[in-house]
């Protein structure tokens, strides 16, 4: 049998072991020498299998420290109609969202500019923590023009859904106009809510490594109005902080 099939079989067996929690998150795999004995192959073949596991995000290999099982990243889609519930359902995971902050306040200058509001205009600011399988996954801070959607905070408290809340406030639909993504560190309250990594590499001195997104959602005026160059009004300025050790973002607009 060709060597490439041997390393693939080793990779598949170790993948099964990891998913069955024979090697839980944070635990080191046996050494290359031990795995070579287990599978009756040379260490080069084992090394190839470990490299593939690392590329798939199941382990982290460190020089002199061996291979450690890490939390696999989740593929999270960011599209024109990004919805947490849809993403979680697609991942076949259990998702929960809870409100951390809900208040009406004057918009910060950069938020007012992005939402095309006058200086000092009020926005509803809602901050939520999303968890997947009981683990903190993303912290989101959204700002909505209060004059346009006066009842949004109450609607969101009932639904925990941006889409449903906007519909309750007579905004039938919305779409994402743009998204910016950067790698960053957060600290303070957001870091405390997101917590550290089970594999220990996401948090350093109270800071958490995140994928930071900033997005603008606008009211969906329909294709006919868009074709006439009449985009909808700005309806949501959204910042989200995804744990970098857990999330892979796929942006489709």
Structural commentary:
This protein is an alpha+beta fold and 253 residues long. The protein has 2 domains: 67 residues, Winged helix-like DNA-binding domain superfamily/Winged helix DNA-binding domain (Arc Repressor Mutant, subunit A, Orthogonal Bundle); 178 residues, Chorismate lyase (3-Layer(aba) Sandwich). Helices cover 31% and strands 36% of the residues. It contains 9 helices and 11 strands. Strands 4, 5, 6, 7, 8, 9 and 10 form a 7-stranded antiparallel β-sheet that branches. A hairpin with a 2-residue loop joins strand 8 and strand 9. Helix 1 crosses helix 3, helix 2 packs across helix 3 and helix 6 crosses helix 7. The longest helix has 17 residues.
Class of the largest domain, according to the CATH hierarchy?
Answer: Alpha Beta
| Helical content band | 25-40%
Poorly predicted sequence stretches spanning 5 or more consecutive residues? 197-201
N- to C-terminal distance: 45 Å
Protein structure class: alpha+beta
* Tally of DSSP β-strands: 11
CATH architecture verdict of the largest domain: 3-Layer(aba) Sandwich
- CATH superfamily name of the largest domain? Chorismate lyase-like
- Rough shape? elongated
Give the overall average pLDDT. Answer: 88
How are helices and strands ordered from N to C? HHHEEEHEHEEHHEHEEHEE
Rg from alpha-carbon coordinates = 22 Å
> What count of structural domains?
2
Give the count of helical stretches: 9
- For this structure, the CATH topology of the largest domain is Chorismate lyase
Q: How is the main sheet built?
A: 7 strands, antiparallel
Strand portion, in percent? 35-45%
């Amino acid at each position: 049998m060709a060597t490439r099939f041997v390393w693939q079989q080793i990779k598949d067996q170790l993948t099964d072991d990891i998913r069955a929690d024979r090697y839980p998150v944070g635990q080191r795999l046996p050494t290359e020498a031990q795995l070579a004995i287990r599978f009756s192959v040379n260490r080069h073949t084992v090394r190839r299998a470990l490299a593939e596991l690392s590329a798939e995000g199941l382990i982290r290999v460190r020089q002199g420290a061996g291979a450690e099982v890490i939390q696999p990243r989740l593929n999270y889609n960011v599209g024109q109609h990004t919805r947490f519930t849809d993403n979680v359902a697609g991942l076949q995971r259990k998702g929960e969202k809870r409100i951390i902050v809900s208040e009406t306040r004057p918009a910060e200058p950069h938020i007012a500019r992005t939402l095309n509001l006058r200086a000092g205009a009020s926005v509803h600011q809602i901050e939520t923590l999303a968890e997947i399988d009981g683990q903190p996954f993303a912290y989101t801070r959204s700002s909505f023009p209060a004059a346009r959607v006066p009842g949004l905070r109450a609607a969101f408290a009932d639904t925990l859904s941006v889409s449903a809340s906007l519909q309750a406030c007579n905004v039938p639909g919305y779409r994402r106009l743009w998204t910016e993504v950067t790698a960053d560190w957060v600290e303070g309250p957001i870091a405390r809510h997101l917590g550290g990594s089970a594999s220990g590499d996401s948090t350093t001195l109270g800071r958490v490594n995140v994928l930071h997104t900033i997005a603008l959602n606008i009211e969906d005026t329909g294709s006919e109005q868009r074709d006439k160059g009449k985009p909808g009004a700005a309806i949501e300025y959204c910042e989200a902080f995804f744990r970098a050790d857990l999330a892979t973002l796929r942006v489709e607009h």
